[in-house]
Amino acid sequence: MYATPYLCSMVIKNNVSLKPYNTFGVDARVGYFAEVKSVSDLKKAFRFIGEKEISFLILGGGSNVLFKNNFDGMVLLNRMSGIETIDESADFVMLKVAGGEPWPDLVDYCVGQGLGGIENLSNIPGTVGAAPIQNIGAYGVEVKEVVEEVEVFDLQNGQTHTLSNRQCEFAYRSSVFKTSARGRYFVLSVKLKLSKKPVINLSYAPLKKMFESRNIESVSIKEVSAAVKHIRKSKLPDPENMGNAGSFFKNPVVTKAELQNLLKKYGDMPYYPFGGNSFKLAAGWLIEQCGFKGKHMGNAGVHEKQALVIVNHGHASGEEILNLAMEVKHSVAEKFSVELEFEVNVV
User: Fold this and answer.
1) What pLDDT is attached to residue 216?
2) Domains contained in the chain, CATH given
3) Which among 36, 50, 145, 206 would be 20 to 30 A from 270, CA to CA?
4) Model pTM?
């Protein structure tokens, strides 16, 4: 059940290493650090930040952040927990899930309950609170498709608000939380609408191939989740063994005219329709054509199996990793006249 906020027991720590709290394994340090488990904790942190007049950063699983330097302000680690069924019909279940819940655990819970909608998002690292911020997506599905509301704590005025799906302003790997309201909200919980009668999504080609001999009506969400986990494991390094934050770059979006110009020179370039007059390019392919796949620069490198992923081979600093990312970005722009955007947040 959803955890009831309890009396504040939060401890604010000084000069803490963030190495255990980011999947790159970068050993940056922060001036103040606190694990937030309740609204009472948040209010205490809100007062502390105001009194000290310091900046702050919210962390969940630390799977989408790169610390370039030490952080002088305060890190708030979302440790709120709980899953609650708040509404149900013959076709749907509405879940209220606390922001600190691990996202992979939530997907496994839903698949185990026969609730469809997020099985294609299996094994994406991070927390539930980070999912709408990033509008996480994979294998033909984005989380915006199941988000009804996001409950937030406003760190500007100390008030609690609820944002509708529309107010979240979801876009490709983006939302209001990354644009006009960047750094303003702490996600308390997310309300998700999941289906008791799942519609299987096999639009992603490698996923579809795994079931090509089957009638789609016979495929279960449990099988889809297992297939997604298999694909991810075959392509992406485990952060426990090699520091990384998954895809470092977004797949760039170009117009039809831009695509046609690129295809004149690079006829084998993969691309995908992206609504209207736009097309999505495969950033990994672009990076690979520039010779970066498997390349090392000091302790940082581009993964040998997936060029979208930048890895820490042991003791890379945030600056080393960022320098490699910038070199990749520059090379792709020079060769293809295409600008890559970071999916990872650099602090």
Assistant:
1) 80
2) 13-78 (3.30.43.10), 83-235 (3.30.465.10), 243-346 (3.90.78.10)
3) 145
4) 0.86
